[in-house]
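dumping the sequnces here before i forget
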Amino acid sequence: MRLPNTRQVFAAAAATSALLMTAACGGGSDPAGEPTAPSSAATGGASSGSSTGTYADGTYEASASYPNPGGVSSVDVTLTLAGGKVSDVEVKPGAQGTSLQYQEKFISGIAGEVVGKSLDELDVSKVSGSSLTSQGFNAALEEIKSKASQA
Amino acid sequence: MTLPDRWTFEAIGTRWQIDSFEPIAPEVRASVQLLIDDFDRTWSRFRPDSDVTRMSRTAGRWTLEHADVLLGLYDRLDQVTAGAVNPLVGQALSDLGYDAHYSLRPRATVASVPSWASLRRSGATVSTDEAVLLDVGAAGKGLAVDLVVDALDQAGVQEVMVDAGGDLRHQGPASVKVALEHPGDTTRAIGVVELRVDDALCGSAINRRAWGDGLHHVIDARTGRPTEDVVAVWVLAEGSCMHADGLATAHFFADPEALAEVYPHRFVRVQADGRVLASPDLPGELFL
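..and the predicted 3d for all of it:
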């Protein structure tokens, strides 16, 4: 992913690392930030409070968008630097346009919280998952696993 | 409803299970297996004598049985996914380790994927300017299921459930319930859907056909790399397992509304960002 300007702003503070990962999931991006951080700034370990002060104090704004299966998602970030440290971060993740429509139009839930039900509890004729793979594939996979565990 | 007669066999790289109300006569079984073998000999990139393997050695002009139907669907999927679904991912898949020998070890360099438009087609005849490796894994098995259902129907076997490694087509008289396997736990289900007569259900998930960190079989043709945005999809479509199968892959890459124009269907989609999207009129229940 390419966030040439916003990435360095993000990296200036550990507080924003979660956001960086969110944006990094998306693939392409089109940062439209202004003003931007100096591109030559060393980002170092990005640990909190270790800013080297290479960023000028002020308020930085940037937005990044990235395609996802539900359309285009975006994040708008406003970050304030004072005394070389991040004093404020505001993040507005945006479901917008088609993504928002989908949230309203389709059943929606959070998979991370979906425990589901045990197959033993269900009265079903079939189970549908990823396609069962061939014996050749499975045998090769087992061989690799066993070699890996011996290594 | 339980269909009393069960016939299982291994073909085109997966396990088939055909349940029927009446036993299927030996000569009908033989004709079904011949049909599947013909299909495999045309489309399999895993056997040295297939047309697809010949195409991977040299440029040329080839007539491939069912190419009008199968590659016609890929034309649509290429359009609606902006090039993400493209059978020309074959070489990239092979380079990533999913090759004819199942080496499952990625090569240092992975081939870039030619655009789908670079393969010219007129009806069932295709022309290539270079050697290309086709992988019709997104919809081929679904079409094979449809062909088997048609052949059985013509032989008088109408009450039947055809299951090719989880790609289902249900022709039985009553509805059946099918669990949707939890993408993170194969002992659990995230929901149950009900298949009515002539329904097809296909699932695609990146958990099982995976062979390494980030290596699985759903390739974005635009990057040549496995996709990461969606982890599991199910598509329920009436009358066509091929469309259900192809759309299940397309859901890894495209808007549901754009896909609805390809073929009417219902879907469940588990995205990597944690959301589950599903058609409101899905016949069944999700345990969300």
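Chain B touches chain A through 74 residues (CB under 8 Å).
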